């Protein structure tokens, strides 16, 4: 386990564990989808499956969530919380963007010698941030009353996903 990393690789069972937790961490690694300039890097995210209900479908307030509503004002969405040390501004922008886009991707079983950023946030420390990231993806203000009808996280579908990015000196660019 590297410095500040919250996951440990077990060579016996060939899986990741959060120290202090009893079960393996469910992991996905997304394949690179497009070619851009910069260093290829994988960024870890905790992905939480959430149910929500909004009081109304005001298009001024709910710019992204309407795509995830299935019946009435209720919907389901994956919320992405960056698990790497990106800094507050970049973490919020990156997590809100991935939540708003809710990307589809093919997976692979290996990093294929591509650098991956350390996972420095545990699932337990990411879980309280889920509603905040949902609101950040949905509204510029991120008001709690925008989900006053209900918001819940389904713990059975919690997963650590490594998403592909290109890193330059200025920014991280998604490579899905």
Describe it.
The chain is α+β, with helices and mostly antiparallel strands and 176 residues long. It has one domain (8-174). The chain is built from 3 helices and 10 strands; from the N terminus they run E-E-E-E-E-E-H-E-E-H-H-E-E. It has helices at residues 88-101, 123-126, 130-138, and strands spanning 8-10, 15-17, 27-30, 39-53, 69-71, 74-82, 107-108, 115-116, 150-167, 172-174. Helix 1 crosses helix 3. The model has no long low-confidence stretch (mean pLDDT 81).
Layout: helices, strands, pairs:
Blueprint: E1 8-10, E2 15-17, E3 27-30, E4 39-53, E5 69-71, E6 74-82, H1 88-101, E7 107-108, E8 115-116, H2 123-126, H3 130-138, E9 150-167, E10 172-174
Parallel strand pairs: 3-9, 4-8
Antiparallel strand pairs: 1-2, 3-7, 4-6, 4-9, 5-6, 9-10
Helix pairs in contact: 1-3
In short:
This protein is α+β, with helices and mostly antiparallel strands and 176 residues long. The mean pLDDT is 81. The longest helix has 14 residues, at 88-101.
Question: Which terms would index this structure?
Answer:
15% helix; globular; 10 strands; 176 residues; alpha+beta; two-stranded antiparallel ribbon; 3 helices; eight-stranded mixed sheet
